[in-house]
Amino acid sequence: MLNKKNIKKDLSVLKRLLPYILPYKKRLITAVISMAVVSALTGALAYIVKPLINNIFITKSYTELVLIPLLVVLIFLVKNVFYYAEFYYIGSVGQNIIRSLRDEVYSVIVKLPVSKLNKIPTGVLIARITYDINIIQRTVSDSVSAVMKDILTMIVLLAVVFYMDFYLAISVLVLFPLVIFPVTLLGKKARKTSTDTQNEMGSITKFLDETISGLRMVKAYNMEEFEIKRFKKLSDNLYRFFMRMTKIRGLTVPFVELIGGISVAAIIFIGGLQVIKFGYTPGNFFSFLTAILLLYEPVKSLSRLNNSLQEGIAAGTRIFGILDEKPEEKGGKTSVPKEITALEIKGLYFGYGKYDGGEEKEKTGEHFDLKNINIKINKGEIAAIVGFSGAGKSTLSMLLPRFYEPSAGEININGIDIKEFNLKELRDSISYVSQNVVLFNESVRFNIEYGTSGKSMDEIINAAKLAFADEFIKNLPEGYDTLVDEAGSRLSGGEKQRILIARAFLKDAPILILDEATSSLDGESEKKIQQALFGYEESSGGASKIIGGLCVNKIVLIIAHRLSTVKHADTIYVLEKGEIAESGSHDDLIKMDGIYKNLLLKQME
User: Residue 556: which H helix or E strand, with range?
Assistant: First the structure.
């Protein structure tokens, strides 16, 4: 019963590859025709051994001596032309299938909800797109094509063998089923080992992603040798799995070799007996023997390919597991209002346990990260969320763009629940500036323009000026075309943040979320970023005006640990253990002599 289930599962994985193959059926048909020609010519080579022996070496015909070598050359010439066509077209089909799969897997990963992405290590996802896809590529391009070619070759050669001597063919081929059992058993072991190998490859990719991106920290704590030992341990485990697979592959061929050797011995004995006793011609015998020897090669090849096919099925199972993940919901069909005048959070509860397989708790439970949050921000107002680490400040900022969904309560824009809005439009209405700087290995211009389209260079430069970034950008080697290396390591912390703020200026969304945007900055950088966010007063000809100010005339939510950022806020909400413990202006909260004042005093120490 278990075997039937496994076979059904294997077939379902292979069937799922069919839609990727069908668009290239013409190329596949051309490859199959080429394979058929190659197989037919292989059979012809076996058959012409008969006239070669009988007419040249026995009857000594000069005509045959000239014609048969020319025929052999012609067969090899035509065979190689069609072999190239087969190789090219089947390779083209395989590469196109893999390209489609790779693109689709990446598309699915990008569209996964944040709640799901947080559960899957980055290294594992990278391993799916690289290692697992490469295994499928080998299975499709090499294994499947080889299976088709070998089966066609076997059919042609079997036809020759049975045509030459039916009874001798039966007596020899009865040994071939003995190959099936050991090959099947080794195939199962190959599948399990391949799965273990892929898991270990995912662990190594995850490890490399973490340690190489955090190499400065590793060096700062002198942990190079420690990390080398950790990597060596993972590498040793992977080595053991690869060696296990090598042993399995190595055992497959000897089993087939043994059966092949017994078959050849049987042919020599029975065929030789027929030549000696019953007048069987040497040409018939050697033609038959040649066909059997040629038949042995595709049989041996198929036995090796079984292991590769099992690896491909294991990789396919993992790839289709990713493809079966549900994408992020697109939200409702309601369009976001052109003018957003109010953002309101009403009776909001949220717990991460809901996204970790845990059951949603009662509102009175202790397992919510946010409890009964009520906040209202009108256009032109700034609200700030402060509190000690772990109070739930950043969690709140994750709910507004719908990275997560509230366990209870509502988040409304202009009185409409954000669940009703189209998700793309909702996120287009929000600019998000985080302490976790995300810069791509592209030009400065690309990083500022990211998330917007059709912006002119003048608009990009203007956004950079408003963010106090234009001056340092112009001093870079190639200005706005300077390539920002990985994680923006050639830029200071303040410069990175100003690029993010320039990005937000360029997007100019009506809702702005600042999540610890000025944390860990020096005083000068913080001053410039404060001016970029809230504007500054400039006097000219006796008159003064406010210049810049990303927060001006927007709905602004500031998540902050550093309280110097929140003094500009109209209302400050103090979170403690996921609940709003205090709220009011900066001056009001100082007068309360509570948590906020305690936070302020601790920062001044």
Answer: strand 555-559
Q: What whole-number distance in Å separates Cα of residue 492 and Cα of residue 524?
A: 12
Q: Are residues 387 and 285 in the same domain?
A: no
**Three-state secondary structure string covering 331-381:** ECCECCCCCCCEEEEEEEEECHHHHCCCCCCCCCCCCCCEEEEEEEEECCC
Per-residue pLDDT band at 39 (split at 50, 70, 90): confident
pTM over 0.85? The answer is no
| Lowest-confidence segment of 70-74, 271-275, 403-407, 559-563 by average pLDDT | 271-275
Spatial distance between the Cα atoms of 150 and 308, rounded to a whole number of angstroms: 15
Same domain membership, residue 110 and residue 38: yes
394 — phi, psi (to 5°)?
A: -70, -30
CA distances from 125 to 117, 239, 309, 357, 439 (A): 9, 21, 22, 20, 20
Q: What is the pLDDT of residues 538-568, one digit of tens each?
A: 655 555 455 557 788 889 998 887 777 787 7
- Rounded CA gap, 245 and 578, in Å? 51
In a domain, 30, yes or no: yes
Phi, psi of 320 (to 5 degrees): -70, -25
Residue 405 lies inside a defined structural domain of this protein: no
Question: Is residue 375 in some structural domain?
Answer: no
Are 279 and 386 within one domain? no
pLDDT band for position 363 (50/70/90)?
Answer: very low
For residue 443, the 8-state DSSP code is B
- Residue 75's domain is classified under what CATH number? 1.20.1560.10
Give CA–CA dist 29/22, Å, rounded: 11
State which amino acid sits at residue 410.
Answer: E
CB–CB of 348/435 below 8 Å? Answer: no
**What does the DSSP assignment read for 378-401?**
ETT-EEEEEESTTSSHHHHHHHTT
Q: What are phi and psi of 332, to 5 degrees?
A: -80, -175
How far apart (Å, rounded) are the C-alpha atoms in residues 511 and 467?
Answer: 17
**C-alpha closest to that of 450 among 511, 503, 509, 501:** 503
Angle at 460 between CA 456 and CA 465, to 5 degrees: 145
Instruction: Give yes or no: residues 239 and 120 share one domain.
Output: yes
Residue with tokens 């007996």, as numbered in its chain? 273
Q: Which residue has the tokens 């190079």?
A: 224
Going by pLDDT thresholds of 50, 70 and 90, the confidence category of residue 25 is: confident
Write the DSSP symbol of residue 481.
G
With a cut of 50, say whether residue 359 has pLDDT above it: no
For residue 228, is it within any domain? yes
| Residue 370: half-sphere exposure toward Cβ, Cα within 13 Å | 29
Domain region containing 154? 15-323
Total domains, the chain:
2
Residue identified by tokens 């404060």 is 530
Residue range 120-125: mean pLDDT, rounded: 75
